[in-house]
Amino acid sequence: MAEPFNTPVPGATPVPGATPVHGTPVPGATPRSTTPTQEYSASSSPRPIVLHIGDEVRYNPATYAEFSRKFEIIRPSLAERQRPAFSQALREGRYGAFAAIFRPFWGSGGEMGAWDEELVALLPDSCRVFASAGAGFDWADTKALGQRAAAEAVSDFAVAMIISTFRHLAWCIGAATFPTADPAATFASCHGLATAQSHNLRGHVLGLIGMGNIGQNIAARMGCIAFGMKIHYYDVVRKPAALEKELKATYHASLSDLLAVSDCIVLCTPASTDGKPLITKETLAQVKPGARFVNVARGSLVDEEALADSLEKEDGSLSSAALDVHATEPNINPRLLKLATLTATSQTPIPARVMLTCHNAGGTVETHVGFEELSMRNIMAVLDGGKAVTPVNLHHLK
So which residues are the catalytic ones? Predict the structure, then answer.
């Protein structure tokens, strides 16, 4: 799957004096300005070198000033970050013995494509840290990297999507805004029919596939205090009893057991390392009749054709869905798009059964601020001899 299609928030205040290529200056820092062809070596720089890929820092200039005083910052231009040029520069050692890679935004810095074994193999032995903004890392082979915060924002968005599947918000919004020959009739039809198919959330079972930071945040929001849902979950590793008690969460040892009891299934687990979907024709056949489905994880985890099949059936296993991520972003599966569109007919509009958004769940200013800061803190922690703040592949490190 392509890397996340999110774009940094436009209009953010840039770091004063920042330049679009190498050696971005910031207040209180004196990073060395370079040319695209200048080479580096461990002896040419008294400070550890950090390769900064992507846009300039926008939200945390004070931390970047500290960061730049500690390290020699090299920032390849957009042209140099294209895969052929970038690979060649790594092959030639043009950026020297850099100790870390810093990618402060998920919407830039990925021009070289997936960090697969081919690209990882070109990294110098000196590279110890890859700190990237974002909660997802399916665009990077973390095992290959090893062998050589977004939870709050995503959880808030997931709440809206869960509510949408119970209250048919896509249908309600479409009926109020979709241009038809008789808008009043469309409005009245939705007012009556959507009401008959909508339900309160309280008392229904919310099945979480994945109980990491995002899953735990969703559980806390949707549980007994706020929405009164019953929290069930499946994860490859069961969580401690204390956490289950706090969240009033019921564990299922298999995905099929979770699907059989869930009134709404939320996919909030990292992408699979083998690239295979988790939600397939076979797994969808195991869901509770009339269940709802929400995906705030990765589009590659879902067989979208199988999902459309289930939603299109009159007696299908799924009654509605909400998807923030898609398998071939920025393209939307045409069958799911049709299911998300209020369609005019000679009798009455066909209700929209799917809510679709544009990989927006983690996209808030606060999320960008946190990711940018955290990326720098991770690098400083490791290169200062400490532990990474938020490591994702310690189990692969030799």
Answer: 298, 329, 359
